[in-house]
Amino acid sequence: MPPHVDLVIVFRVTPPKVTSLSKEQLRQNALKAERQYTALIDTLNRAGLRAVGKSGENQDQLLILVTCPQKVLSRLVHCERYSDFLYGLPMSKLPSVEEDLDAAPLSPADRIRLVHTFITSTPPDGGLGIIPKCKEWDLVESVMALHDHDFNEHWIRLWTRHRIASVQLDKIRDQFGDSVALYFFFLTAYTRALIFPAVLGLVFYFFGTPYSALYSSLLLVWSVVFVEWWALQERILSVRWCTRGSFRVEKRRADYRPGLPWWKKEFRRVASIPIIILFASVLAVILTGIFVLEAFVTQLYKGPGHQIISFTPTILFMALVPKVMASYKLHARRFTDWENHAHQSSHSNSLAIKVFTLSAMNAYLGLALSAFVYVPFGESVMHFVQRYIFSGSRHAAILLERFSINLNDTIKVGSGGGRGEKVAGKVTALNLFEADRENARQKLNPSRLQEQMFAFIVTNQVVGNFMEIGTPYVLRAVDSFRNGKSFRNGKAKKKRVAFDDDSVHGQNQGQVQEKRTKEEREFLEIVRSEVTRPEYDVFEDYGEMVTQFGYIALWSTIWSLAPLMALLNNYIEARSDAFKIATHARRPIPVRTDTIGPWLESLSFLTWLSALTNSALVYLFRPPDDELRTQMDADVDIGLHAHHHHHEHGRNGSAATKELLGQALLVALFASHGYLLLRTIVRRLLELAIWRGSEEAKEAERVNKEMKEKYLKQCTSLTGGTKLVTVDAAPRVGDDWEAFWAVDEGVEEIQRLVKDV
């Protein structure tokens, strides 16, 4: 039986990012590490915790195993319950000091959270102040928890063999805390909610009309209902889990600097807006340039290597966009730190909003350009690109003539031979790029929107699942090979050690000691293997699901099978996320929370934006009623709808297209006002149907009343009993008025009335 370890503190003997040092520097670093390590152990022991250091994966790493005795844990429980009561939280399910911990045990997540908070909180908040990578503890790399492998195996088995409903989310909360459990609850609820649009899209794909107004309207209603329903589910879960208002008892961040005026805080938050706009502009320029190159230039090019040239946009995207996003995330994190947030929840919310802003732009801008630029103005843009290319080609030909460079041989390879050997400019323009306008127009892809939706919904999600599951295996195998270990042999060795030392009655003391030594060695190998894993961040998983929701709500009018593909993906996503947590990541540190944070606001914003995009798409691309039958039997040319409107207005060309887009904008604005009305109605109906009169609402009222009653009882017990309130008697004016108060005439008046009747 391995020892019980609550937390593992990863201690780095030498500072990170140090390559070559002199002997004197090595000696100074060793002395510093010894002093800091000794202070760390003393701090933990003085606080009542038990700590012991063990060797890590390499010589530069030490692992400090920490366990919390029950006496200290009881004190931590009492402090948390006391804080919850003071700040108006529902009394948690943790036992009080007087109760026996064995009779009412803590969940593993609550125990880890209490000990982790005690170690990493600042001293003003009652913690030890051991904060990784801070100035005082710069050699402390991280504070992590160990996995419960028995639970992980059972959990993965449930995900792989049973339905989603069979996985009890309360057990996930007991192991990983509120934050992870809330994510899986959201993922499960969202996956179930996708059943309706998946069936709806399947019906409209085979039996409906392209860009159906009915489908778009029902999709908008579904998205509004889901977002408002989830807001109520958050409230219900917070009451059920006793976490409603947990932000009020959150510990302060170590980097928080008190005393900053409120206007400076607001100024710092506003100051990040220009940076966001700058990066958004850079990203928009890059994505637009790649879009023009992929949609027009590569289609016009017909010279040598045209098949290879077609991969240029993808190469540019992979080379530029990740670097821009990485640089932006770095600056966003720095600005968020500069904003001086008091609590980690507000810090994480601010960072999530900043990062998701550009992530959503990266995800949806390509579809927006195709829908509102490529389709309405595709022919005009194609002709403009042709003029630009031929103008540039003539200048390039002049330069080639000046340097006496002849490209005839190269051009012959790509075009099958050329006859104009003297005029290189004409040969370059006519043979490398398409010159005929009619042929160029034929190269416009009428099904581009559907192909993009398929790539985003299907291809990207398949690649993403492989990156989450397959890539960690590859990286760990490469790391094992680099360290001179066999990935497979190491795993087999651990199994062999586990089964070669079964306890047998009658063993002598030496054999028992040898068995314990081997068990300890096996346990430490497991600890070292978990230390090498990356930390789990629920931010990426939330971002992936919210982005997918945006694809469904904003753009599934283009391809109504998108919800069905998302449903199938989420069926796998729930299992891959569980597998990722259990196998490829460290155990998440439990966090108390009552909401999914800024992601709910992002869902609401995407729902509002879907009212605009869906109405515009339907107005622009829905075929006229007299052509529905014809276009249901053939592929729909979504670019022709603009020309029908041109004929209706008696015009053609870009002027009519601009007028059409202006009308679509008005329709979108009208739809946005309709969305606000729809959301108000749905919110009111769901409030009455789900929250009012529910068990959770009654429980919230009961807990609030119970807390006030306990407070009054405590006040009574402190004063030694109930005291009657004494009131001074009213001053007497005189004894003559005693007769006034002694004579009652009411009965006599009633009797007189009876006699009169």
User: How far apart, in Å, are the first and last alpha carbons?
Assistant: 97 Å
Biggest sheet: strands side by side, in what order? Answer: 2-3-1-4
| Helicity range | 55-70%
- The helix-and-strand class reads mainly alpha
Largest beta-sheet details: 4 strands, antiparallel
Low-confidence spans: 93-104, 407-430, 488-506, 631-651
Can you count the helices? 27
Overall average pLDDT? 77
Q: What is the number of E strands?
A: 4
Shape: globular
Layout of helices and strands, plus pairs?
Elements: E1 7-12, H1 23-46, E2 50-55, E3 61-67, H2 70-86, H3 108-120, E4 140-144, H4 149-161, H5 169-176, H6 178-193, H7 195-207, H8 213-240, H9 262-300, H10 306-309, H11 312-338, H12 344-402, H13 408-415, H14 424-432, H15 437-442, H16 448-482, H17 487-499, H18 509-531, H19 538-555, H20 562-584, H21 598-621, H22 628-632, H23 641-649, H24 654-691, H25 695-719, H26 738-742, H27 746-756
Antiparallel strand pairs: 1-3, 1-4, 2-3
Helix pairs in contact: 2-3, 4-20, 5-6, 6-19, 6-20, 7-8, 7-20, 8-21, 8-24, 8-25, 9-11, 9-12, 11-12, 12-14, 12-16, 12-19, 12-21, 13-14, 16-20, 19-20, 19-21, 21-24
